[in-house]
Amino acid sequence: ALRNLARYKVSEKRFGYTVLCVVALLNAGVPATDPQVAEAIQYLCNQADAAMNDSYSGAYHGGLTLMLLGMLKNPALHRLAERVALQLHNFQEKSGGWGDNSRTQFALLGLKSARDLGVNVPQESFRRARRFLEGGQNRDGGWGYHPGSGYSYGSMTAAAVSSLYIVTEQDLKNSLQCGMQSNDAALNRGLDWLQRHFTVRQNPDASSHHYYYLYALERIGVLLGQKFIGGHEWYREGV
């Protein structure tokens, strides 16, 4: 990751890859004060607004930036988190998504991180995202890259399940009923699809994007607090 960091951060076009490298290093235990990591964080903070200049890459860049800021928890970067979250909200389409299920996942992961940091994310963003996700679910309970594609595969189903959990969690936080439990039919159907097709050897029903699938599967395990998916201990098998 350190070698990649040195290679990627020299170009604004590599903004997203640089965030991924920094997040990987932080998760691996390298402190944010490490000189090379600190330099990269400063670069990302300086370039974050410019990296949000179009809705396609902006959904990825914004989501990743907010996830990084969520890890850093630096009060001095709160204004930056507010700006990025607002731009993500502005990029949301009338359909409720960010174009496809991949960008929608990253946008929602970012908005969740912003919300957890105390940024005021409009509740309407989550409501509209729910309509997008539920409306795009295929009959078999899975999702494809585009809503209602009719063809489901692992990475997009896992992405949509974690996205649905994020919007469901927001609904529960706003509920007036203490201890209310989630009973999300669309989310449960998505989990059923993943349980039926579970594997860590490949992206189920797809020929590529194996690592995207593993990442999306990991997001489900962490967000939902699931040790097992379909009777499989996903983390041990994935490792």
* Strand percent estimate: under 5%
Q: Return Rg in Å.
A: 18 Å
Oligomer: single chain
The major sheet is characterized as:
none
Secondary structure tally, helices = 11
Distance between the termini: 18 Å
Instruction: Specify the structural class.
Output: mainly alpha
Order of helices and strands: HHHHHHHHHHH
Low-confidence residue ranges: 176-181
Which shape, going by the Cα principal axes? Answer: globular
Helicity, in percent?
Answer: 55-70%
Q: Total strand count, please?
A: 0
Mean pLDDT: 91
Give a concise summary.
It is built from eleven helices and no strands. The protein is mainly α and 239 residues long. The radius of gyration is 18 Å and the shape is globular.
Keyword list:
globular; mainly alpha; 61% helix
Structural overview:
It is a single chain. This protein is globular. The chain is 61% helix and 0% strand. With 239 residues, the protein is mainly alpha-helical. It has helices at residues 2-8, 15-27, 35-47, 55-72, 78-91, 101-116, 123-135, 154-173, 185-196, 210-224, 234-238.
